[in-house]
Amino acid sequence: MTAQLIDGNALAARTRADVARRVQALKARGITPGLAVILVGEDPASQVYVRHKVKDSEEAGLHSVLERHPATLPEAELLARIDALNKDPAIHGILVQLPLPRHIDSARVLEAISPAKDVDGFHVASAGALMTGQPGFWPCTPYGCMKMLESIGYELRGKHAVVIGRSNIVGKPMAMMLLAKSATVTICHSATHDLAAFTRQADVVVAAVGKRNVLTADMVKPGAVIIDVGMNRNDEGKLCGDVDFEAVREVAGWITPVPGGVGPMTRAMLLVNTLEAAERS
Ligand code: GUN
Prior knowledge:
Layout: E1 4-5, H1 8-28, E2 34-40, H2 44-59, E3 63-69, H3 75-87, E4 93-96, H4 106-112, H5 124-132, H6 140-151, E5 160-164, H7 171-180, E6 184-188, H8 195-199, E7 204-207, E8 225-228, E9 232-233, E10 239-240, H9 245-248, E11 254-255, H10 262-280
Parallel strand pairs: 1-11, 2-3, 2-4, 5-6, 5-7, 7-8, 8-11
Antiparallel strand pairs: 9-10
The structure holds guanine (GUN).
């Protein structure tokens, strides 16, 4: 059996088109959703991510503001900028690109963002809302993974989902989202003994480690759904995920490719969150 692909590019395109339609409806009521992206320093990967976020926003009709600051920006000045954006009625979403320079306390910065504008979903209030099933913003990557599962009509209730990775940005919120859909959830991580024993039982595997070939074909139950959050480079410098894609696709039922899977959906969900921040305002 060869797995069916879950096409993140196509789903993201549909998601962006839907956002663009809803943005026009809001604009007709005199509200233009606004996203502020703050970049501190010159990290090359962050510059690319931020450029994508601004381009996506503009194409969807959002008002988008990019603030660039030198790596030497004092933390107090960054907190003052966030405070000003929290109070700015033209801004509905605030995103501070991570990682921040070492002299800045990232946790303090993320907590300074108003939860009502926390479109990254990284604030403790957003994490708490997700955990307790209350309204709030969900982190874009796991939210995009949930949309991919939804797009294939996958019923999670009673299924065993194994999440590999326990980051605050992906693994932990992913587990909460799967649990909210009544899956039985196992979180595996770097200290897990015999990872394969868990993944072989899984109906759904979400791989979010950041290391190549974490999931190989012998670790996968035939027909399982495989969501690959990884973004790595192989020996030829080509983008690849955490999953041994060519081998695993011969065993799995569904699989997300890298590139063209979770990545574009992560970008699209930021637009969804910003739109919804404006709709709620
Ligand atoms: N750095 C890498 N990914 C992300 C993300 O999704 N949000 C923010 N703010 N920073 C990041």
